[in-house]
Amino acid sequence: MLAYLIRRVGQALLVIAAMATIVFLSIYAVGNPVDILANPNADAKEMAEISARLGLDKPLWEQFGLFVWNALHGNLGRSFVFNEPALKLIIQRMPATLELAFVALIMSIVIGIPLGVWAGLKPDAWSSRTIMSGSILGFSLPNFWIGLMLILLFAVQLKWLPSGGRGPTTNLFGIPVSFLSWEGLRYLLLPAFTLALYKAALVIRLSRSGTREAVLQDYVRFARAKGLSPTRIVLVHVLKNIMIPVVTILGLELGSMIAFAVVTETVFAYPGMGKLLIDSIGRLDRPVIVAYLMMVVVIFVVINLIVDLLYAALDPRVRLQESEG
Amino acid sequence: MTDAPFILDRGESLWRQRISQFFAKPSAYISFGLLVLLLLIAIFAPWIAPQNPYDLAQLDIMDGRLPPGSTSMDGKTFWLGTDEQGRDMLSAILYGLRISLFVGVVSTFFACIIGASIGVFAAYKGGKVESFVMRLVDLQLSFPAILIALVLLAAFGRGIDKVIIALIIVQWAYYARTVRGNALVERNRDYMEAARCLALPRSRILFSHLLPNCLPPLIVVATVQVAHAIALEATLSFLGVGVPVTEPSLGMLIKNGYDYLMSGKYWISTWPGLALVLAIVVINLVGDRLRDVLNPRLAK
Amino acid sequence: MSGPILSIHDLKVEFGTRQGVVKAVDGVSLNVYRGEVLGLVGESGSGKSVTGLSILGLIDPPGRIASGSIKLEGQELIGLPEHELRRLRGERMAMIFQDPMTTLNPVLRIDTQMIETIRAHEKVSEKAARSRAEEALKRVGIPSPAERLLTYPHQLSGGMRQRVAIAIALLMSPALLVADEPTTALDVTIQSQIIAEVQQLCAETGTALIWITHDLAVVAGLADRIAVMYAGRIVEEGDVDPVLDHPRHPYTYGLLGSAPSNNRRGEKLAQIPGMTPSLANLPPGCAFAPRCAFAQDDCRVVPPALTHAGSRAWRCFHPVPDRETV
Question: Is the reported ipTM for this assembly greater than 0.90?
Answer without folding.
Answer: no
